[in-house]
Amino acid sequence: MRKKITVLFVALLxxxxxSACGTELASYDPEKPLGEQIxxxxxxxxxxxxxxxxxxxxxxxxxxxxxxxxLQTSSTAAMTSTLEKAIKxxxxxxxxxxxxxWMFTKYDLKFLDDPKNVYGDAEDIHTxxxxxxxxxxxxxxxxxxxxxxxxxxxSEVMLDVNNGMDxxxxxxxxxxxxxxxxxxxxxxxxxxxxxxxxxxYVAWDxxxxxxxxxxxxxxxxxxxxxxxxxxxxxxxASVATGAADGMVAAWLPNTAGVYYEDYxxxxxxxxxxxxxxxxxxxxxxxxxxxNSIEDLK
Length: 297
Ligand code: PBE
Hints:
Layout: H1 2-21, H2 34-37, E1 41-43, H3 50-61, E2 70-72, H4 76-88, E3 95-99, H5 102-106, E4 109-111, E5 123-130, H6 133-136, H7 138-146, H8 151-162, H9 167-177, H10 179-186, E6 196-201, H11 205-220, E7 224-229, H12 232-241, E8 246-252, H13 257-263, E9 267-284
Parallel strand pairs: 1-2, 6-7
Antiparallel strand pairs: 3-9, 4-9, 5-8, 5-9
Helix pairs in contact: 8-9, 8-11, 9-11
Bound molecules: 1,1-dimethyl-prolinium.
1,1-dimethyl-prolinium binds at residues 45, 49-51, 98, 204, 206, 232, 251, 255-256, 279.
């Protein structure tokens, strides 16, 4: 009996302690050093993402690694949900941020200046296909080569998906309301009869949007596409080895630069499908005195 009570007591005590540790962070305090307030932690996404590699470089370049700043690996979904909670409570937070992404539409965020230019200037998103696609599937090649759209286009699809719409449905909806753009990508292309085509992507919100739109457009010219989500390195490898026909998810020159270097001999880069993307560190606008990565020190 006594033992049971002790066990119960210890159990209760640990629940209380854990919930005490789990209490929310305090609100952002501009008078206190930021590092102390957020445990010197930047909230990141999936490990292989280019933005994670760049952020590791930034921690070194700005001397933040020496001050024990660290980058927490998670996923886009976990990062945005942590961000949402922080914003609700006006708490301090630093995240890996990029546009186009609905986080910048939904929340009042700002990019931190990057005077050392670690994240590079504006990025473009490229379409990359396997060698030999031009010969084997000329209609798909031509459509993929023509595919290009704007940040607003992509954001529209992303926002619908974020609001709970199925990605395929959101893609169809966008296609229906943008017939002129779709015609530019498909006019005069010879239709095929159920040829398979395989696209790979990483399940970032931006790439879920673009890959689903391209897949639906390929359907409209007679292809039977499969789209397969994977991690970033296998995505590049799948196209380089010919296991996949192509992808529309290459953020260049900086973000996926290391992958491009590794695979450039074995792929066919069809150039830009979206201009002026951006990658960096971001904070909520209420962190008024934090405007540059230098301000994290
Ligand atoms: N992103 C979104 C990716 C590319 C698309 C910025 C998170 C990255 O590799 O970092």
